[in-house]
Write a structure and sequence with these properties.
Blueprint: H1 7-21, H2 35-70, E1 85-95, E2 103-108, E3 115-119, H3 127-130, E4 134-138, E5 144-146, E6 149-151, E7 154-155, E8 157-165, E9 171-179, E10 193-194, H4 205-210, H5 213-218, E11 221-223, E12 229-231, E13 234-238, E14 241-242, E15 252-253
Antiparallel strand pairs: 1-2, 1-4, 2-3, 4-7, 5-6, 8-9, 8-15, 10-13, 11-12, 12-13, 13-14
Length: 254
């Protein structure tokens, strides 16, 4: 037999099927869609996480600054560590045209260009003796013009006086000057360190001049009884060994 169903019966049947598929109790209420709220909450969580990351970065930055505080401050460093002494070699030398005591030199220091430096050594060395000489350059001095020639640093020498007898029998004092020489194995441009002291932390040329750093170091810069360069007993060192004069013992380094 064919059973005909009214429209209301069809609607009730359809609702019942949907309730069965959705696992709802007969006459139950559909749950509200919370996706929007969850998305909003998720967005808020993302912002909070971003803020936390920013705070963490700031904190880490603060920690880095604190770690830097553990390193010796420039004011606490020995004055000698504020100077920069580089291994160099004279590649060109000529007589200063307007000064009878000065040589002009180009010195290879492991940099892009040779340094031009003027030195008052004409009374002590010939041009032939100067050319090819290995030495130390004080490389963080402020550039200065010496009789019109701009000098970018100075060469480090050791001096002493000795008594000699002249042709007339009179005793006179003669100044001896020698280069402070790095060992052969030291590379051009290598920065000298000081035995028993912190690593060098050179200050600017302006600071060297303003604070008179080089002058403050002069009293302590002398060669030892073995002709080794030192500051208050701390030896001038390279990776290949100490720097030294050829013969001058206990001489002032200038």
């Amino acid at each position: 037999l064919l059973v005909t169903m009214s429209a209301s019966d069809l609607i009730d049947s359809t609702i019942a099927e949907l309730e069965a598929k959705l696992n709802l109790a007969p006459g139950g209420i559909l749950p509200k869609n919370n996706n929007n709220k969850e998305t909003k909450k998720g967005g808020e969580s993302g912002k909070q996480q971003q803020k936390k990351k920013q705070k963490q970065k700031k904190k880490e930055g603060g920690n880095k600054n604190n770690n830097n505080n553990n390193a010796p401050a420039a004011a606490d460093l020995p004055d000698i560590c504020k100077l920069e002494f580089k291994v160099g070699k004279i590649s060109k030398v000529w007589v200063h045209p307007e000064a009878d005591k000065l040589y002009c030199e180009e010195i290879e220091c492991g940099e892009d260009e040779p340094r031009q430096i003027a030195s008052g050594l004409r009374l002590h060395y010939t041009e032939e003796q100067m050319l090819g000489q290995r030495l130390l350059v004080v490389s963080n001095l402020k550039a200065k013009k010496l009789v019109g020639f701009k000098s970018h640093g100075m060469v480090l020498c050791v001096t002493a006086t000795t008594a000699i007898t002249g042709d007339d029998g009179a005793t006179i004092e003669k100044e001896l000057v020698e280069f402070v020489e790095p060992p052969e194995g030291a590379q051009l441009g290598e920065i000298v360190s000081f035995e028993g002291l912190p690593p060098p932390a050179p200050v600017s040329g302006a600071q060297v001049e303003k604070k008179k750093v080089f002058q403050a170091c002069m009293e302590g810069m002398k060669t030892t009884d073995d002709c080794v360069a030192a500051w208050n007993g701390h030896l001038f060192m390279t990776s290949a060994g100490p720097c030294r004069a050829k013969t001058i013992k206990s001489g002032a380094m200038r």
